[in-house]
Design brief:
This protein has helices at 11-20, 33-42, 85-99, 114-122; strands spanning 2-4, 25-27, 48-52, 55-64, 69-76, 105-106, 144-146. By secondary structure, it is α+β, with helices and mostly antiparallel strands. It has a single domain (2-146), classed as Aminopeptidase, CATH 3.40.630.30. Strands 1-3-4-5-6 form a five-stranded mixed β-sheet. A two-stranded antiparallel sheet has the order 2-7. A hairpin with a 2-residue loop joins strand 3 and strand 4 (55-64). It binds coenzyme A.
Length: 148
């Protein structure tokens, strides 16, 4: 297994991976080629992919805004799960964030995502239940579609 930073050239492979993950939301603008280009330009070092036999089988998308880091699209292809690949990608991403001086990371795990919540809990992450998540849409073209 090889872990490395995500490159823009990985776009087709990572999009195919995200589309294969059950229960993922794919955003029309944010997850477009241009969306990833913008994201990687701002965050070139803090994203991780896992690669095996020249295939991308896992990803952690991570943005750091100078105060807080956020994780998105954390996933491992179904036939590669339970091999600590998710854990290793998270560790690699955390290491890259330490180098940038980040102090904390937030992410959204849907309440219905039992495995996702178990994963974060078992990795020692704290569940915040004292805050509400607010969203405000700036671009109505950024619709989302559920994978399956
Ligand atoms: C969540 C996900 C990324 C975990 O990837 P993974 O490579 O299988 O996870 P790991 O092997 O690194 O597991 C690390 C730990 O998480 C916990 N864990 C992972 N999957 C679990 C499961 N199905 N049930 C219970 N605990 C689980 C275990 O404690 C595990 O440690 P262990 O193997 O020593 O028991 C993967 O299941 C996935 O892609 N799910 C779909 C997408 C998703 O829900 N992403 C999270 C969005 S918030």
């Amino acid at each position: 297994m090889h872990y490395r930073a995500m490159q823009l050239e990985d776009y087709d492979s990572v999009l195919a991976l995200w589309q294969s993950i059950e229960g993922f939301y794919i955003y029309r603008v944010d997850d477009s080629f241009e969306g990833l280009r913008k994201f990687l330009q701002r965050n070139p070092h803090t994203n991780t992919i896992a690669e095996h036999n020249n295939q991308i089988i896992g990803s952690v998308l991570c943005g750091y805004d100078g105060r807080c880091a956020y994780f998105y699209h954390v996933c491992v292809r179904k036939d590669y799960r339970h091999q600590n690949i998710g854990k290793r990608m998270v560790e690699r991403t955390i290491e890259s964030l330490r180098k940038e001086g980040a102090t904390h990371i937030n992410l959204i795990a849907f309440k219905t995502n039992e495995i996702g919540n178990l994963f974060w809990h078992d990795l020692g992450w704290s569940l915040r239940d004292n805050a509400n998540l607010y969203s405000y849409t700036l671009d109505s073209a950024n619709t989302r579609s559920l994978t399956h």
